Amino acid sequence: MGNYIETFAIEGSGILNVKNPMGIFLDEKFGRLIVASTGNNWVEGLSLASPRISLLHLGGITHEGGDTAGVFLYPIDVWADTSGNVYVLDYGNRRIQKFNLSGEFVHAEEFENQPVSLSTTKDGVYLYVAYSNKVVKLKKPELPQNPGGGK
Description:
single chain; mainly beta; four-stranded antiparallel β-sheet; 42% strand
């Protein structure tokens, strides 16, 4: 398992705290560990460097959650592409939400069934979504169907 080095976040309801963290993504390019704090209905980007600071906070400041853009209901997985865009699997709302490097909401893709895990290609062009019985590959919906006019 390895040798213990340090604790990144402890249970709580404030910034830099987590409650029932379900998904994490190590985003070394931007120096952050992105954590889906399912019990808090938010996502936190914690600095890799000490002292630990919040580099990103998504989902609002309350714990109630919701279904409006940028708010979550049980976020369970996170991923980031090499441009720093963050993708959040919003389990309770059956969707994946995309945020830019600054944490601004970009797009939401809703699904008929609840996805359980996600990943993207490094450039963010393709999205892989896992369900309880399958994994699918999608071209991200906010991209044109034929980039550059190709067929």
